[in-house]
Structure prediction request, 140 residues.
Amino acid sequence: MYRRILVAVENSDADRTILTHVVALARLTGAELLLVHVAAGWAARYFDQLKLRESEEMKTDRAYLAQLKQELIGQGFIVEAELAMGDPATELIRAAEAQSVDLIAMSTHGHRFLADLLHGTTADRVRHLVKVPVLLLRAQ
Prediction:
């Protein structure tokens, strides 16, 4: 059913919610995992245009992805990891299309800020703009 699952991780406690569920699903289906974290800070958004150095946040995110990848490989999964930079929804959609995934899994937080209500959340934008199923789990 699922051969390649993109797992959006954010380097927070919410990741355990989605990873616990996706690991069980991947074990049942034999799916490969693609971990994607989108660095969305100022330096990340303008990294290429301004030829910036990686920020400490980006270095921390890259190390976090490497650690998660190794944990999952240790559990017997085939795993790739990608640190994207820019707008989270745009980058998740790009990664999903470029990497030919057949499921996107991500956690949600609910509306917390006025901006979410006005502009939509990352999860809402992703689920409306991709052609593959999106698994959304509320962060615990």
About this structure: Helices lie at 14-29, 42-45, 47-50, 56-74, 88-98, 114-119, 122-129.
